[in-house]
Design brief:
This protein is an alpha+beta fold and about 325 residues long. The protein has eleven helices and twelve strands. Strand 5 and strand 6 (about 175-180) form a beta hairpin.
Length: about 325
């Protein structure tokens, strides 16, 4: 009976791992893949039980499964290839405002205290814009490219330095993504885009989510380095996000050992384990030095702040 119980614990972990390694995210598996780090932790249970019960063959199989999960998940918790270490230091921040309801004073305080140079916002509404600007955001970040609108589909970018070529575009999932080129003093021009993909909550939404991730702009080796930051509604256990990163980006969290820091949910959806669906993706010509998450009252997402090293002019 004990052996049967152990195998009932091991087999689902093996199946999950096969789907994760194969990138077979379909239907409900799209959402489930986000919880892979939790399954990795749970896979330790049969190892311990098998060792205590002196079932050595079962313990060996369970250990191999744990080792495979460790190879997949644990690199996000240690510093990896963080990119160039010489250049101009730049601080960026992204925050999903939950239909404009995030506390403006907290966002403005973080911008001031952390000396943010570029701020990207999602679920950015006209009311949210007015609240931020009334809280003093424009004194710190006077330049902007805004696509605010009622509901969850607006976005915006604020910057300490002038923005050229600013605008916004609506992705296939219906969300606006603000973008613009910023040239910090002493640095080369950089293109920033506030990302918000459709959430994969149904088969139809899954297709839009995959299309949104596939259609995100790729780095252009012949053009300015690019930074995508925002709510990707995806973790690094999703093939679609890994493909985007693999097109020439690095995930700042993964590169700095903060890739398992959860960002959602922090307000709604009680009982759902927290996952890492907000990201700062930087062109491989940009270095990532630090990344930290910060709680924003009134939002179900934590804000991310990254310290970057961008190419000098």
């Amino acid at each position: 009976m004990v052996s049967v119980l152990l195998w009932l614990l091991i087999v689902p972990a093996v199946g999950w791992l096969v789907f994760r390694l194969g990138g077979w995210e379909r239907g409900a598996l799209v959402q489930l893949m986000a919880f892979t780090p939790y399954v990795a932790g749970w896979s330790l249970v049969p190892v311990v039980l098998a060792v205590v019960g002196r079932r050595w063959t079962t313990a060996l199989v369970a250990f191999v499964v744990v080792l495979a999960y460790a190879i997949v998940v644990l690199p996000r918790a240690r510093t990896g290839d963080s990119g160039p270490s010489r250049g101009v230091e730049l601080h960026v921040m992204t925050s999903n405002m939950l239909i404009g309801g995030a506390d403006p004073a907290t966002i403005v305080r973080l911008v001031e205290d952390r000396q943010i140079d570029v701020l990207a916002l999602q679920e950015f509404t006209p009311n949210g814009r007015r609240a931020l600007e009334n809280a003093g955001l424009l004194k710190l970040l006077p330049y902007s490219a805004l696509g605010d609108e009622p509901g969850a589909s607006g976005s915006g970018i604020y910057a300490r330095f002038p923005i050229s070529g600013g605008g916004d575009k609506r992705n296939g999932g219906g969300f606006r993504q603000a973008y613009g080129t910023v040239q910090p003093p002493g640095a080369a021009p950089l293109v920033f885009e506030s990302v918000h993909t459709r959430a994969p909550v149904s088969p139809a939404e899954n297709k839009l989510w995959q299309s949104d991730l596939k259609d995100e702009p790729k780095p252009d080796p012949g053009g300015p380095p690019r930074v995508l930051l925002g709510d990707f509604n995806a973790t690094l256990d999703h093939r679609s996000l890994r493909a985007l990163v693999g097109s020439g980006y690095r995930d700042a969290g993964d590169a700095t050992g903060s890739g398992l820091v959860p960002t959602w949910p922090y307000l709604e959806h009680p009982g759902i384990p927290r996952v890492t669906i907000d990201h700062v993706l930087v062109d491989e010509r940009i270095g990532a030095r630090k990344l930290a998450a910060h709680r924003i009252p009134g939002s179900d997402h934590r804000a991310l702040i990254a310290e970057l090293i961008v190419p000098a002019a």
